[in-house]
Amino acid sequence: MVSSRIDGQRTKSLKLNIIAGKFGGRPIDAPDGRLTHPMSSRVRGSLFNIIGDNIKNAEVLDAFAGTGSLGLESLSRGAKHATFIERDRLANKILVENITTLGVGEISTVFQIGAKTFIDKNQDKSYDIIFADPPYNDLQLSTVFSLMTLLKPNGLMVLSYPGRGELPSVQGVVVVDNRSYGTAALTFYRNK
User: Would the pTM of this model clear 0.90, i.e. be above it?
Assistant: First the structure.
């Protein structure tokens, strides 16, 4: 754990590594677990193994981005562009620092707003892959499922949530995979 200052406030940050691709092995910062719950390398690795080549040249939306690890991993593996949504000011600053560290500013867009506000203001945008990793203590399922309106035809949305309970199905999309990793679970939705 590393201690640093952001806007005069002392924060503790964790180091995560990009798993594979162009930036494989490169470290990125993550705020301590009170602001975000960074996805473990094991779960992240499994997620990207399932997605496979769908990530190549994809337009990616990393909602509830936190550290940006999902969007940054996507860019490392060949995504064309990543859009990040993170409303928390401190997490957003670390996210921007991670983008700068990896030198992917030209293929990244960051919005410091809530996911619901982003959806309401960006109905003209669409994405090949959407990552939804909301806070586990507030899944905001109505907002998460509203993200699906931004999926391109045949687009894929991956929802990360606590590994307990069933999630409701959503009209117009089908669940194509569901994986559990102890305290975390992933559900993959395809826009049909």
Answer: no
The Cα 30–Cα 91 span in angstroms is: 8
| Structural domain of 149 | 2-191
The structural domain count of the chain equals 1
Q: What is the CATH number of the domain that holds 101?
A: 3.40.50.150
Residue 162 has pLDDT above 90, yes or no: no
Contact indicator for 181, 43 with CB cutoff of 8 Å: yes
Residues 6+ apart with CB under 8 A from 81: 59, 60, 107, 108, 109
pLDDT in the model for residue 1: 33
**What tokens does 65 get?**
């981005």
Q: For residue 114, name the pLDDT band (cuts at 50, 70, 90).
A: very high
Identity of the amino acid at 181: Y
Cβ neighbors of 115 (< 8 A, separation 6 or more) are 63, 64, 85, 87, 132, 134, 140, 143, 144, 147
